[in-house]
Amino acid sequence: MVNIAILGCGGLGQNMALLIEQKKDFKLVGICDRNAYFFDEKGISGLIVKDANSVEKVHGSVKSTNSIKDLISNYKDKIDAIFIALPNLPNEFIPNIAQEIISIRYKGVIVDALKRTKAVEMIKRLDSDLKRADILYLTGCGATPGLLTAAAALAAQSFVEVLDVTITFGVGIANWEMYKATIREDIAHLPGFNPEIVSKMTDKEVMKELEKRNGILELHHMEHADDIMLELANVCSRDRVTTGGIVDTKNPKKPISTNVKITGRTFEGKISTHQFVLGDETTMAANVNGPILGYMKSGLWLYDLGTRGALTSACIMPHFGAAKDNYLEIQKRQKTALAIAAS
Ligand code: NAD
After folding, report:
1. Annotated catalytic sites, by residue?
2. What long-range pairs does 45-54 form, CB within 8 A, spacing at least 24?
3. Which of 116, 269, 282, 322 has its CA 20 to 30 A from that of 64?
4. Dist. CA 181 → ligand 1 center (Å)
5. Is the CB of 180 within 6 Å of ligand 1?
6. If you ran DSSP here, which 8-state letter would residue 192 be given?
7. How far is CA 138 from CA 145, 154, 263, in A?
8. Please, what is the angle between helix 180-187 and helix 203-212, to 10°?
9. Mutate to test the pocket of ligand 1, among 15, 19, 31, 33 (most ligand atoms within 8 A of CB)
């Protein structure tokens, strides 16, 4: 049984608590949000957490303005794995939390659903600190980056060279208040915005921006960490990876199907595209939290084998061997030489 703590009790945090209810191998023992934390080694009911909608309202919780530190420092020996379901605004917020967890001397597995390239780079820079602290930190393990990035790394195996990875996501939610951080972070990708600007916006200002667009966010060429994760996994250079999507903040129906297309060259010289499409009935919560738990299990397995440091979801996949840069050129020369020899 894996004892889990969730940092953050918003859209993803609450739905993770509900998901854990249906899993045999996991037990939710700790949860916190901005105002309070709660720990119970016997297990915390996901239904109670969802119903309360905030940790403060859960019977037995402790009010705190420093809830992350209080939860982890008081109970670190009883927590096997941590899911960080916090807003990442500004960009360094979650990397700073990771540093705080190191300084509290927690030992174990941490998993996040970070989205921005720069944020994942910051986590990678903590690699040696995490190793020294006896932590295995898996970053970018949500849907995108996460499930779709890992799918791209798997699909790449059919090719000798990956030419293009295009990720397109569709998200439908009934109202933006269910996933405030997610929507704010998406707005940060729109022209004229960035994480610093969005982190200072009031809820009213966010709502005004959403109203202007009739609740729909169209996102193109996002600064999404799928690019650096596939580069680090040796699949292709980051400039070959593109992420975009449509988010409807007023309707739970997905506006488009979420999918990833991987185009590559096979060893026979054919160009082809694999496509992985998520079922339209699967929600953002299902496609983020499911992979988070899966990576947590892989993380605990790797932890037992002695792995420490910062890894991404894409590198816990079959590894990709880069193509010889000049292979086609060499082949052409060999063919010419053979033809000359035969004539
Ligand atoms: P949310 O806004 O619904 O909830 C955030 C929670 O964090 C709230 O409970 C809030 O009280 C708590 N919190 C904020 N600051 C805190 C602090 N200092 N200490 C303790 N608790 C604090 O967030 P969400 O929409 O569920 O998103 C969570 C994260 O998941 C975001 O970073 C988002 O980008 C990420 N996400 C990733 C993917 C993916 O596919 N990779 C998809 C969706 C969301």
Report:
1. 115, 185, 189
2. 45/17, 45/21, 46/14, 46/17, 46/18, 46/19, 46/20, 46/21, 47/18, 47/21, 49/9, 49/13, 49/14, 49/17, 49/18, 50/14, 50/15, 50/17, 50/18, 53/14, 54/9
3. 116
4. 5
5. yes
6. T
7. 12, 18, 27
8. 60
9. 33
pLDDT for 327: 75
- SS3 category, 270: coil
Tens-place pLDDT, residues 63-109: 999 999 999 999 999 999 999 999 999 999 999 999 999 999 999 99
- According to DSSP H, which parts of the chain are helical? 11-21, 46-52, 67-75, 93-103, 117-125, 127-132, 147-155, 180-187, 195-199, 203-212, 226-232, 284-304, 327-342
Ligand 1 atom at minimum distance from 55 CA: 9
Using the mean position of ligand 1's atoms as its centre, give its distance from the Cα of residue 339 in Å. 63
Residue 242: its pLDDT value, please?
98
Domains of the chain: 2-144+287-315 (3.40.50.720), 149-282 (no CATH)
Task: Pull the structure tokens for residue 339.
Answer: 């033809």
* Model confidence at 47: pLDDT above 80: yes
- The residue whose CA has the least distance to atom 7 of ligand 1 is 8
